[in-house]
Amino acid sequence: MNFDFTEAEQAFAEEVRLFLRANPPETFPIDGMDAGYGSGAHSRAFLRALGAQGWLSMCWPKTHGGREQPMFMKLVLMEELALAGAPFGPLAGCWQTADAIIEFGTERLRREVLPAIARGEATFWQGYSEPDAGSDLLALKTEARRDGDHYVIRGHKIWSSHAGIATYGLVFARTSREARRSRGFSMFVVANGTPGMDIRPIRSLTGEVYHHEVFLDDVRVPADLVLGPAGEGFQALLNGLDADRFWGRFYKAPALGRVLRQLVDYANMTPVRGAPLARDPLVRRRLAAIAADITALRLIFYRTGCLIRDGAPLTYETAMAKVYADETGQKLARLGMDLLGVWGPLREGSRWAKLGGQISHLYLTTLGHTIAGGTAEILRTSVAVRGLGLPSEPKPAAEPRAR
Amino acid sequence: MDFRPSPAQQILISTARAFLRQHCPPELVQRLALDERGFDETLWRRMAELGWPGLLIPLELGGSAGSLLDVILLVEEMGRAGLPGPFVTSAVVATSLLLAAGSPAQQKRLLPTLAAGERVATLALVEESGSFDLDAVTLECAVPGRLTGRKLLVKDAHVADDLVVAVRVGGHASLILVPADRPGIARLPLDAISGEKLFEVTFDGVEVRPDDLLGAVGDGHELLAGALQAGAMARAAEMVGGAQHVLELAVEHAKTRVQGGRPIGGYQAIQHACADLVRDVEASRALLYAAAWKMAEGLPAESDAAQAKAYAGEACLAVARRGHQIFGAISYCEEHPLHLIHKRIQAASVEFGDGQFHLETVARAIGLVSEAPLPPSEATISPRDFPG
């Protein structure tokens, strides 16, 4: 066992800290809201700055312009960025898409999209969910019809994060009607602005726009912008979701640690009946207990990271880790609102808002975390069935076919 | 970073698992819990043959020079098997104290016999306050002189040959080491649901000689801190092992118990309960290993150890309680193993500092101002203090 970083990892962490001191995160313009996952807000400028450091492509093969750094360097980078509260919102999605393109992308995707990702100029929205295909993703109705050297996509996607400010959509669509429900799907890389694509914002309960719905009305996509073997898209998607759960939540522990430090400062500085709030035994205990949760969460993610690094098979680990991350975030937001009391509901920018109004924002955004990317219920079932080998619940006798 | 036990540690784990499966089956655990003495000398001797009691002791004193992390991995297996007896109290806590504070003469006299399992030692610390904090110790003792008073919740005192007693010498926190059969010492059994053997130990004018001092007068705090931390880690390891056992039993039951025409594990209510068992066990284990690794590496680990103990106490107990719900009525029977594991986890969660005790350590470590807590009248709980 060893719970330390290697010398190279420590040196890289120091390099990232130096970069953040020279380029304070708060000086970068923000283009999209912080959804509270821990990766901060969406900032193209910050993403380009990471690209200029060579950090977006550092783990790619040299043949694709990378430096073949070990995968753990990505963890080091994300942890440092999250600890600093940097706006690296799109980073995980960029890395996942790049990995998929490197693994099974077409020549065109490698030539056109990879370099743009490396420079921090390409970001992606996920076109997976549909109004009638949420947890039951295979019920999706969006279809891609082959027409010569193009596909023509028709359908309706929803809950696509930052779709309005991204450069490409990753659209999951049915390409054939095969007997097996999980076959006949493909993933398409569709440039924003392609004729027939209509992206409409959905205002969220925070009052800001994060999700979009996307109408695809005979959108023509060249056949060499299919990501992954045609018809085998579902397995690629599952792998992608597995990765999503890990890479999309890895930075939650350091980000929550940052919020915890703010709450500790608040408790120390806030007098209640003549003594600091921090002297209330129950406040001390609740903050200490969640500190242990955050430590455990970080370790759970690093353990999973080690399994990924070592090429060990994953069954339940990312599902379990995601649920734990999201429920811990909710717990911390709830605790923060409790500590702030009557000041809790005040928004960022309001007179008298405490801690910059960030806690009420976190409280609201974390509500969505146990729903997005696989609900806590779906994931607990996944832990039980894939991880523990418990039997699946029986499917309805007559399985409805996609219409 | 690497979460895997070393090859040598993997051998230790698999040896322990095989040994305990053979020599410490559930029937024996059940019998010893109900038995007044609750100590199987044959089993203890066999464990000694494997070198377990000497794991922390250096080679030249008859031990096998293992690390605290090795001990933690071994005790996790003991917890999984529900092994009763004085291993933690003697081979971890008392041994750590002797290693930290013993004079060369004391170490040479006692450590080889402890390593060989020929003697057993225990710690007499807690008094009426119920606290594992040395500040709460009031028992005064002159050295040389006579000791009169009592200690409570002394584990395995009935099989102990030596007692490490936390006392005040002229008001200074100190430790003394006395043979358990010295005239004036009496051991009165307490009756605990866990089946663990706890005692009130009374001292009635017991003679204390100059060479009974363990460490210097006034060094008690420093000497005890490391041993209590090791003890807390060992009890956390027991909890993790116990919770792992509950998880395995519950999943097996969920796969085989049929109701409504299918295994109950096919219902989401049971699936989700089982999924939470996995998280609680794995998170507890991760905190435990990381803290024990830091301690074994000599890194500062006070907060890590406190987090691990507090977390395991909460999470592993939740595992045991959820286990009962998954098993249903059968787990209410004495012959079913679950309640024994549950009671052991509960006992482990309070020894060497309960959750409240350790969370206060964490509270200070994360920077909460540490003036004395508000007096009870002012620390009134407002509605917003209640978690949702």
Description:
The complex is a heterodimer of chains A (403) and B (388). Helix content of chain A is 43%, strand content 15%. Chain A has 403 residues and is α+β, with helices and mostly antiparallel strands. In chain A, the strands form 3 sheets. Chain A has a 4-stranded mixed beta sheet. A 4-stranded antiparallel beta sheet of chain A has the order 2-3-7-6, with no helix packed on it. A two-stranded antiparallel sheet of chain A has the order 9-10. In chain A, strand 9 (271-272) and strand 10 form a beta hairpin. In chain A, helix 1 runs parallel beside helix 3 (72-83), helix 4 (91-104) runs antiparallel to helix 6 (233-247) and helix 7 packs parallel to helix 9 (317-340). Chain A is globular, with a radius of gyration of 22 Å. The termini of chain A are far apart. By secondary structure, chain B is an alpha+beta fold. Chain B has 11 helices and 9 strands. In chain B, the strands form 3 sheets. In chain B, strands 1-3-4-7 form a 4-stranded mixed beta sheet, covered by helices on one side. In chain B, helix 4 (68-81) runs antiparallel to helix 8 (268-296) and helix 5 runs antiparallel to helix 6.
Structure summarized in a few sentences:
The complex is a heterodimer of chains A (403) and B (388). Chain A is of the alpha+beta class and 403 residues long.
Fold blueprint:
The complex is a heterodimer of chains A (about 400) and B (about 400).
Chain A: H1 7-22, H2 44-52, H3 72-83, H4 91-104, H5 107-119, E1 124-127, E2 143-147, E3 150-161, E4 168-174, E5 185-191, E6 197-203, E7 209-222, E8 226-227, H6 233-247, H7 252-269, E9 271-272, E10 275-276, H8 281-309, H9 317-340, H10 358-367, H11 376-387
Parallel strand pairs in A: 1-4
Antiparallel strand pairs in A: 2-3, 3-7, 4-5, 5-8, 6-7, 9-10
Helix pairs in contact in A: 1-3, 3-7, 4-5, 4-6, 6-9, 7-8, 7-9, 8-9, 9-10, 9-11
Chain B: H1 7-23, H2 26-34, H3 41-49, H4 68-81, H5 87-101, H6 104-115, E1 121-124, E2 145-155, E3 162-169, E4 172-179, E5 185-189, E6 198-208, E7 213-214, H7 220-256, E8 258-259, E9 262-263, H8 268-296, H9 302-327, H10 338-350, H11 355-365
Parallel strand pairs in B: 1-3
Antiparallel strand pairs in B: 2-6, 3-4, 4-7, 5-6, 8-9
Helix pairs in contact in B: 1-4, 4-7, 4-8, 5-6, 5-7, 7-8, 7-9, 7-10, 8-9, 9-10, 9-11
